[in-house]
Input
Amino acid sequence: MKEGPDIALLGSVIGDPARANMLIALMSGKALTATELASEAGVTLQTASSHLSKLEGAGLLQQRKQGRHRYFALADDDVAEVLEALMGLAARRGLMRTRPGPKDPALRRARVCYNHLAGDLGVQLFDSLQQRQLLTGTDTDFALTDAGREFLDDLGIDVEALERERRPVCKSCLDWSERRTHMAGALGTALLDRFIGLGWAERVPTSRIISFSSKGQKAFETYFPSVN
Amino acid sequence: MKEGPDIALLGSVIGDPARANMLIALMSGKALTATELASEAGVTLQTASSHLSKLEGAGLLQQRKQGRHRYFALADDDVAEVLEALMGLAARRGLMRTRPGPKDPALRRARVCYNHLAGDLGVQLFDSLQQRQLLTGTDTDFALTDAGREFLDDLGIDVEALERERRPVCKSCLDWSERRTHMAGALGTALLDRFIGLGWAERVPTSRIISFSSKGQKAFETYFPSVN
DNA sequence: TCAATGCTTCGGGTATCATCGAACCATGAA
DNA sequence: TTCATGGTTCGATGATACCCGAAGCATTGA
Output
C-alpha cells in the first residue's frame, strides 16, 4: 500500500489473504455482514473491520447500513469481472495454495451461495445437466435446450415463469472450492427452492450448509447422476 | 505473500510498486533486460533481480537468456489482459496515485502499446474517428461505420483482411497516461503499421517511443484532426 | 434506563518483506 | 589471462501493516 502506480494499490488490496477471502466470499453476489466476512476470512471482527474499510477505500466494496447490521457487497460487476479474471489466471497457472476452499466438509459438499446450490453437489448438478445436453453453450454462457425445459418441467419447475423475471435465468457462478462452474441465476434459485420444497434438503440455520436427507440424496442422484 | 487463496498470491505479487512498474513497462509487449526493468522500477539491480524471480515464480513473466543479457517479457496474453483489466478498474475508480504516466514527454506524446499507437496521438486518433462518426458505439465497445470503412480504405488499409484475422478488429485500450480510450485490436495495429509504412513515423529502437517526422505530423493532423 | 448486539477505533506487539551493500558467478572482449 | 559488464545471492536493516485485546460508539429490544 505504498505509493506507486494504481494497479499496485489494487494489487496490494487484493493481495492480503484475509481480504482476498472476503472478496471471494462476496463473489457469490450476496451481501454479507462484517461478522460473516470476518468468519469467512478467519480473522477477528476488529481486523475484519480494518480490512473492510480498506476494501471500501479502494472502491471495491459497497456498504449498506441496515438496522445495526452493515452489509458489504462488491461495488459492481467490474470488480467481479476483474476478480474472476484473476482467479482464472491463478487457476491456469496452477497457483493453488493452501486452503482449497472451505474446510468444513459439509460446506464443501453442499452450501448456499446467493440463493443457489454450490459445493460438490452444485457442480454435480451442473455437470449432469451439461452432460445430458439439457444445457447448451459454454461454461460461462449457456442456455436451456428443449430437452432441458422438459426435464425441469417434470421436476416441477415453471421455466416460463422464471423467464418472466428480470434477472437472467441461466447464469454461471464459479465455485472456488471445486474451481468449477455451477448454476446460478433464476434457475439456480428455483432448483434449490424446489429441492427444499420436495423435502430433499433443508438449510441449516445460521450457516450456509444445506443438509440433504438420505432420501433426498438418492432422489438428487437419480435426477442428476454423477458424470463419472 | 503469505498463505491464502491464489488470487491473494497474484495480488500481492502485483501489489508491490516496483513490480507493478515492471509489469506496466512490459505491457508494451517488448522484452526488457533486468537492468532496464530496474531503472523502470526505480530500484537497484539486486532488488530488481529479487522482484523478477518472484514475478517469474508466479508465472507472470517469461525469461529468455541471450548472451549475457536476460530478457523478461509477460508470460502470455492472459497476463496482459488481467493487467489491462486491473488498470481499467483502477482508472475508473479514480485511484490515480503518483506517477500519472510516463514522465518522458516523447513517451507521453506517442508510444507503442502492444502493437498499436498510444499516448496523446493515440487518443487524438480515436477521438477524431469517433467525432466524425467513423466509429459507432461506446468507448469500450465500438465498431466501424460504413463511412469509417471507406475512410480507412482511402488510407490504404484493407479492412476486410483485418476481419479475416482471429482477433477482434476494434478493441479499446485504456491509456494510463491520458486515462482515455484509444484504438487497439487488429485495426490499431494496422493503423500504426500504415503510419510507419507511409513514412509518417518510425519506432525509436530500444524504447517504446514512436517518432513522427514533421511531414508525418502534418499528414496525421490532416487525417485525424484534433477534436478541439 | 439498562442490557445486548454489531461494529469501529486505538494501541502495541510481531512478522513479513522490500531494500541495498557487498560478495559472488557468468559471459564476452581485449 | 585479465578486465568489464550483466546478473544473482547473501545478510542486515528498516518500514510496513497485519493482527488482536480493550475500550468506545451506535442501534435495537425490553
